[in-house]
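[Solved] Which block belongs to which protein?

Original post:
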Amino acid sequence: MEFRHVLDLLPDLWRDLLAIPHLGLYLTIGWAVYLLGLGFWIVLQKREPVATISWLISLAALPYIGFLIYYFFGPLRIHRQRLRRVRARASLPAPPAGLTPSPEAIELAKLGQATTGLPPTTATDVRLLIDGGAKYAALLADIAQAREHIHLEYYIYLPDRTGTALRDALIERARAGVKVRLLMDAVGSGQTSRRFLKPLLEAGAEVAWFHPMKLRWFWRRPWLNLRTHRKIVVIDGLVGYTGGINITDEEDERLREDAYRDLHLRLEGDVVRELELVFTEDWCYATGQPPLKMQHPPPQPGRVASQVVSSGPDSPWEAIHRVHVGAIHAAQRRVWLVTPYFVPSEAARMALTSAALGGLDVRLLVPKLSDSRLVTYAARSYFDELLDAGVKIHEYGPRMLHSKALLCDDKMAIIGSANFDHRSFRLNFEISVMFYNEQLAGELATLIQEECSRAPRVRPDRERSLWRARLPEALARLVSPLL
């Protein structure tokens, strides 16, 4: 039967369906059973009440379709990886003494170690790389010097000019005998084809995908919503990169005037070991291979107190979330936050407003328009409360601000891949580095001051129409726990 004949039959089918006796009653009973069953499932997850209620209301408005939405995108824990991480971190050396002299810093370091298993350590050198041009130039130069191995993990790796340049640099090193391992997120890097990667594989490199979209048995929920948002590069165990910049032309200001404004780190010293440990755990998890046996260089204690903080749905502790909130509560003079996506939890929002109400200099730098209009509206729905508490809010534009950093007082700084939102705190695999160093904090403070000087402040008396501002913000606020 041709498709047009099927269409011709639809009116008759619809009429027959409406003729079924007590159809409305059956649909009502079916909807009630659906809602009770799905609600029972959601409540058993024991999430925050606000998020649970948001899921229940949203899915109640989408009969039957809501089940598929929750099945693919609802919260999910990964237990197997958590066990592997515990075993892998058991071999880490004891943290060096005397790195975090203040009681607040010691408490945060203990919190980070307790929730991740990664102890405080040091860096011999830390460089802030502003925008993709600086990051890509430094990265390609370091890759050219690689002698043993290159490990890379990215959320977004696109086969454009930037991605091709990096691929060709890796091919050259792989042909020279350097072991190259590239781990990409299957959703974020979904445009990167096998054809593009074929020359890299033929050169001897290994490539793996994090949570690939495979057909699975129905009773095994997919991990569509659980992504690795990390950006990690480790070269010979000596040099490490992490931060917010992916591999894409969209982040290279030399190629595009509208490239993202972003921030990245180049690290040397013992802290690189912790970056590599996070990568190797993700690599073994994604590939099913046994733990990699790495030959690390001798310890090199440095001048910059550092600590890697990783988090993801394989742990219930939300380590990056806790460290951010803890750092804000410990601050005594200022709290400066830079994030592209601002959808705070209740704990994070309370921490920011409490700091401002307590007389601290609290600043929030966000993009004027992010690449998600829904997230932009959700972020603005929190502005009135923050402004009333005394928080200074700046909106950066016209380029999209993609930097992720927190500065507290004169020494504490956190930089990494995590946004200040529910997704980064609870769903994504993220990585940040916490520093306790006056010079580095001063460099970050100078950068944030310069960014704020170019970003107009949000005023309490700004004009906000009902249909263009207040209503969209209120609606976005309702689903913010799900973003």
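(Second protein starts here: sequence line, then its structure tokens.)
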Amino acid sequence: MSRQLVTLADEFLAGQPYSILDREPSDWAGDAHDYYSVGNYSWPNPETADGLPYIRVDGRRNPDAWSDRYDKRRFRQTAAAVNTLVQAHLRTGEARYADAAEARLERWFLDPATAMRPNFAHAAALPGQHDGAAIGQIEATLLTDLLDHVDLLVKAGRFTERLPLLQDWFAELTHWMRSSELGRQEERMTNNHGVWWDAQVLRYLQFVDDRAALTKILDRFDIRLRHIARGGALPRELARPDSLLYTIYCLRAFAVCCRVAAAAGRDLWNAPAEPGFGSLRDAFHFWAGHADDDRRWIWPRQPSDLDRTALWLADEAAAVYQTPSLTAFAETLRRQDLPAPEIPSTAALEHLPTFKE
């Protein structure tokens, strides 16, 4: 694992940092510094000559959404590079990895000449219908892990002078998510999007140290627990064509919320269920009780594209709840030798030896 990590970090070292301005020309006429993408499930209309208006086909991924006409691929690659390079720095102690991580943060977020503006107003566009939707904010979820790596970089004595500028960027993004119409629409979502809105905003508020706003969101977290049915199912996720993937995705968002809450002295992992609903504990046990055998997962699913983040999530839940079923489930996932995630997560650090002077 550590050798693979350093090999990947060296590959990132050989490349140049991306910028929001590296987008290839397209028909979109928006500001060059605004993030622009079409959704993964957005497709040209087969009934029109020009493909407009685009249509959405849930569960069917359009590879063109990852082309350089849009910003999704370069955005994800920037986050992957930062996370990998920080982990390589912690693994080896070599300054060149930290230097390269800082250069990527500078180019994507901080340099006025190249930086992305802090909003996702033009994400998940459907050309011919709209040039951005509330659901596009889900593309920013990877920033929660990126901030964990920024924190690790700062703890290692790096990036300290530029940190306030990145905090300003995330303060502006958080303000947009909490005040814009698209942001408020996403906040009201009753599936994984709503939980991820909380997870993102809570993590960003933690990063900028806005404790009053963070507490306000934690105080109404019972709203999110109503996503969980009695017994632990997540009905809105089970209705998706790739129900297992989205169940895990939603549980990952809950876990981010729980970590932020724990740092603030609150225990959301064990929050009691609302009347008529299930608890988060129920939700993790529902996942473990049905996903340990393909025959038990009776809801729609597509060929698995899961990675080790599922294992690390199961490990985290097993450590929190200390139940035999979750421990056994984590071991079942471990035996599957799941591939490494596209974007290394903070949880990966627990499985890597760390450099010590």
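Accepted answer:
You had them paired correctly. Confirming on the second one: The longest helix spans residues 72-92.
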